[in-house]
């Protein structure tokens, strides 16, 4: 899919989605640069393990890989990164993640997700790099009454600082597209899960609690629904979006990358029980501020323009995740 030996920079490349992106780019023949600051939002050791896997993939394919331990807000560090290799595209995944933590520390989220994104865009402008994928989020839709969510729906009522920063990022990306002719695809991810999933995300967190026979925090009445998207399907959309921005034609657009089906919290817990053979102990709490009642992607646009076609059902995805988790858990003496 890629142009052999082209250099692509991935911010947040040591993380859950980022590590999968890097491995796929390497297998497609791209040289890869990774920017990650290995912050302690969750264990940096998990990200180090991801880097080990990426390095193994680079060695397998005899492709160049370079890692920069840098903060996207640091102008001096990011300038060094952009000077270091002849990057032709940027996949910007680095961000402070999580809806609930953003409510507790909004200034940090605004600084990293907005100022950090501007810093990346400024260096793209400076070094005349004109292909960008920006990781947005389904959270920008807020508590929309209209489902499924369409990219043309109004998204001017976010209900968390995290969501607000992602919408702001889309707007800033459009500004740089307009002023400096940077081709941009803003990708709204919908509840991505799978191997290497962050430990704070529900499916990974619940699996760990199931195996430890500890109570699962259960917010609300279980009716909240999410459009869970298996990581390989999200990855397929990312690679197809990268091909889409690789055009002489000036391009900017926003795409939903979801599964286009919803699963309730209760159904998700049941699927984990079925896959693990363990019974969940539920510790019930009121629904949390900032949590939306449902996410549901209309993916017609991504299908039509990108050729995006998710393939992994939720039931199969949970089984695949648990297979990976058991191997990892046994290795780390968790199970």
At CATH level 2, the architecture of the domain at 7-193 and 230-259 and 297-310 is 3-Layer(aba) Sandwich
Which secondary-structure class do the elements indicate? alpha/beta
Strand-and-helix sequence, N→C? Answer: EHEHEHEHHEHEEHEEEHEEHEHH
Mean pLDDT, as a whole number? 94
Q: How would you write the strand order of the largest sheet?
A: 3-2-1-4-5-6-11
Form type: globular
CATH topology of the domain at 7-193 and 230-259 and 297-310, what is it called? Rossmann fold
Distance between the termini: 39 Å
- CATH class of the domain at 7-193 and 230-259 and 297-310 equals Alpha Beta
Short description:
The chain is an alpha/beta fold. Helix content is 44%, strand content 17%.
Explained architecture:
- The chain has 335 residues and is an alpha/beta fold.
- The chain is 44% helix and 17% strand.
- The protein has a domain at 7-193 and 230-259 and 297-310: Rossmann fold (3-Layer(aba) Sandwich), CATH 3.40.50.720.
- The chain is built from eleven helices and 13 strands.
- It has a seven-stranded parallel β-sheet, with helices on both faces. It has a two-stranded parallel sheet with strand order 7-10.
- Helix 1 links the parallel strand 1 (7-11) and strand 2.
- The longest helix has 21 residues, at 106-126.
- It is globular and about 55 Å long.
- It starts with 6 loop residues before the first strand and ends with a helix.
Keywords:
Rossmann fold, 11 helices, 17% strand, 7-stranded parallel β-sheet, 335 residues, single chain
